[in-house]
Design goal:
alpha+beta, six-stranded antiparallel beta sheet
Length: 634
Amino acid sequence: MTAFFGFTGKGDFLEQMATPLRHWSADREGKFTSKQLSLGCLEMHTIPESVLAPQPFRHENFIIVGDCRIDNREALRKILKLKPDQVMADLEFIVRLYAEKGKETPKLLIGDFAFIIWDSKKEELFGARDQLGIKIFYYAIQQEQLVFASEIKGILAYPGMSKEFNELVLATTFSLDGPSSSEGTLYNAIDAQPAGTWMHFKAGTLTLKKYWTLGDHNITIPETHEERLGKFKDLFFLSVKDRMRTNKRLGLELSGGLDSTGIGGALMTYLGKGGDLSCYSFGKALQPTQEIDKFDEGDLMHEFCKENGLLSKWRKFDERDFTVKDHLNLMTKVQDEVDMNFLPTLTAAFLKQAKKEKIGVMFSGWGGDMAATLTLGGFYRPLAIKKRYWALWKDIRRKHDVPMAFIKWLYFSIKFLQGDSVLKTYKEKSKKKYASSPLKRKIIEKHQLLDREPSIYKVKSTIEISDYLSTYLTEVGINKRIVDHGLVGRHFGVDYRFPMMDLRLLEYIYALPIDTITYQGKSRYLFTEIIRPYIPNGVIDKRKSKVPSVPFTKAFQRDALDEIIAFVQANFDELENMTYLDSDKALSILKKPDPGNFGTLSKLMFYIIKKKIECLRRGISFTENKTKGCFPNK
């Protein structure tokens, strides 16, 4: 696990860039400087071989930094014609491959990676990010020089870097689903390297090129249904096994749901009963605000841990384990953009304990029900809207007999005869959301936010499994949440790994016919069938959780509300200086201490912090002297 940073051209700025990145305890730091380039890194050795290639790592005329875990090392060994007993770090595999294959290198890699390579002979820079965007780096152009880092804060520390907010991104954080990946980062001057894309920089010219799109690879599909299930099982278990490669202790986010429990079941086939796996769960609220907060899936978690000899290594956490101080600390030191989902933020409740228990790798089921395990059962609504009645009939018939299929076909055909009522509902909700936000009306109108199609609607408008998967991976916040998990995890010295977000697994699902994926119209069919022998029957029967991902969320928000309101009120002058926020609307929100406004108030607190972060780093309090000018007003 590595945080890396650097810039082309001359300058002694590495220490400035490294300082804000030191919010976690690295095993070692490294740097490289020349007249053409400076590179720096903070490393934690979560992969055994990583100690063999201290970063920045040099091979011939190439020098590399990166945050990488490569899963197809044996295939690369054959390409590079290495000896079977030759042991190398993942980073060395990449740089040796680049020396031979150049820009074709990322196409040949399977795993989670983000890296930068400098060629000292050609005086050019090459970088790439993995196909699914699990790892990330950001970049900016400053006076024809490239500045880059694995966290935005590293780039912001570069001298003269503009800290002006991206107005559209800021505005859409007050929407139902947040900014899309195509709209940039929170800062106008800084962009994220897109997933599945390589970068080339030479003599002030930057080139970005997409090297992978879902569906590019020809995947061999077995002939029989049983063989297809078997291959899916093999790929899933391989995904879990590859992510177990570490010299650290293993942890698992255990929810009692199908995805996380399934990952746990696969882990235990390798570790054995009572193996070294610590499980961390979000429990029910101690003081619930609503009926649903009174429940968690503790019975299913308990059953899984009991069956696998893990009861002594399982812990549940509630609102006592995450405080406003924790929230403020993450906003100040760690998070560079708004955590729209909020779940990655709440993982601090158990990551503090995981750090004490020396956990180095945390498994998460995120991405499962949206990609690998698919809660999708059919495309009834979009087919009816597009008046694809014969396709609608065939889709319904996969699950129902003729009489019931006809009733459902008639129902959907009539319901959406006049168009899409779902989109209308989305837009009405969006309109209310923006109306209650502190955004100025002119900002809402300028960016036509009320006409904006929510990302989730784009997904639910697809009528093919291939489009469904592609849209989910590019339009919805899957990638953003993965990046947020990775960032918060790094703060506690934990490397997050996502077995459901495996290139081989997703490419295989993409190539399968829908009759295999949703056999007889059954949602989550593939995963349920292959994982059934390894997890409690109760998890299989439930399929999709009826409990919130974090049952104590509302309780925390209620308990934290007064402190957050006090914080925003104490620094209200900073909101008044933001040209896109309506201070009167913000003031009215502050005067109504409603837990329903927690999300809005939390974002206001976040933007205040980001505007005053330089003051905080210099040890100046928010209220002390009301210091101005730390950040531009925009």
